[in-house]
Each structure stands twice: as structure tokens, then as C-alpha cells.
Amino acid sequence: MSRNSASAPYAVEMPEDAAWMARALELARAAEGEGEVPVGAVIVHDGQVLAEGANRTITDADPTAHAEVVAIRRAAERVGDWRLIGTTLYVTLEPCAMCAGAIVLARIPRVVFGASDPKAGMGGSLENLLQDDRLNHRCEVLAGVSAEVSSDMLKAFFRARR
Fold first, then answer.
1. Is 16 labeled as catalytic in the residue annotation?
2. pTM of the full predicted structure?
3. What is the C-alpha to C-alpha distance for residues 94 and 126, in angstroms, rounded to an integer?
């Protein structure tokens, strides 16, 4: 095991995970309609949507406006606290380093993602920042929920731009 080995548990799939991921996929499709990379994110607390986000990097001319960060900012504003204790983040693509860092800092305890990202994924593909033992917070991670749909959407998006 590498020094980045994870001790946080991998999450168990829950019955509601597919439904929340379906909502994240809707947000990804909407982002695609705006010319953005199709990634959507939903933050859920106690079975209710706390916040949603989709990629807005082009729209906002902001390299930090990834779906996860947009959703985290909205959730923190809504609850009036930077700690998003008791939430689950659903996102269609494995979080990058920036997003994984924001997730850890926001204390989101559970992350469910669709497609893996072998080039930038920090939820287990390239590295596992979400579960790094050296950090003061680690997340439960469930990978692969609606992965094929998420992956196909991203592949089609990038294929159309070549």
C-alpha cells in the first residue's frame, strides 16, 4: 500500500443512490446544453436536496466552477456553515484534486460518483485524496453508480468537439 492508503470505508450502495445520481445526470445534460463539460452534482441531507450544481467554468470564466464546488458553495450558503455534516454528494464524474480537497474541507462524509477519471480522479483512480489517512477528514466513497451513462455522456461530448 502507498503512503496515501485509505482507511475510511467504502460506502455501501443505498436504494436511493440511483435516483439521486439520475438527478445529477439531468444537471450534467443541462450543463452540456450550455456548452459546458457535462458534469452534475447534488448534495443531499436527510433525504432532501440541499444544493445542486453543474459545471460552469466556461459560463462564469472561472476555473474553480466545477459542479462539486458550485454545489458545495450553494449548500454552505444555504445552511450558513462551511461544514456540511450529514450530507452525501452525488457527482457524475470522479472528483479532481481541487474538488476532492473542497469535499474534504467541507466535511462531506459520503461521496457517490459515476464515471471514474483515470487522468485526474482523486477518489481512487489517480490517487485517493477523499480517503487519505494524512488528512483530518475522510469520506466514504461509492464509485460506479450510473458509470456507463456518465462515461458515455462525457465521451460523446468530447468526441463532438474533436
1. no
2. 0.93
3. 10
